[in-house]
Amino acid sequence: MSSQHDHPRGAKSRRQFLKLASGIALIPLVNISSVSAEDKKLIPLMESDPQAQALKYVATQEKAQSMPGYKAGSKCDNCLHFVAGTNGCNIFPGRSVDPDGWCAVWAPKPS
Questions:
Q1: What pTM did the predictor assign?
Q2: Structural domain boundaries, residue 14
Q3: What pLDDT is stored for residue 53 in this prediction?
Q4: 86 within 8 A of 42, measured Cβ to Cβ
């Protein structure tokens, strides 16, 4: 019979390494996006934009409340991806978002 203890010792550490490496690989992409949002004149993101529709972006809290996955109080202004000062968003490079908006990629800012 096989058990969980039959796995080689390094299997868990390999899994952890792969998770860490894949996360680290994305860091340059996030930095590029935030620089782009700060350096360019941003174009307002429209709800009709294909990427906005794919990520369920809405510009108001009233619309957000009816979206699957929405949690009360979550909005662009308090999202990890929001770029204060320009209303930019690292998820939508080159676009500005409404601070009261919301999308399915919303993640809380660290406190």
A1: 0.64
A2: 9-96
A3: 97
A4: yes
Distances (CA, A) of 72 to 61, 63, 65, 76, 89: 9, 12, 7, 12, 20
d(CA 86, CA 81): 12
* Number of separate domains in the chain: 1
Burial of 101 (0-12, 13-18, 19+ CB in 10 A): buried
In whole angstroms, give the CA distance from residue 78 to residue 22: 26
Which H helix or E strand runs over 18? Answer: helix 10-39
* Beta pairing, strands 43-44 & 95-96: parallel
Q: What is the mean pLDDT of the chain?
A: 83
Indicate whether 109 belongs to any domain. Answer: no
Determine, yes or no, domain membership for 86. Answer: yes
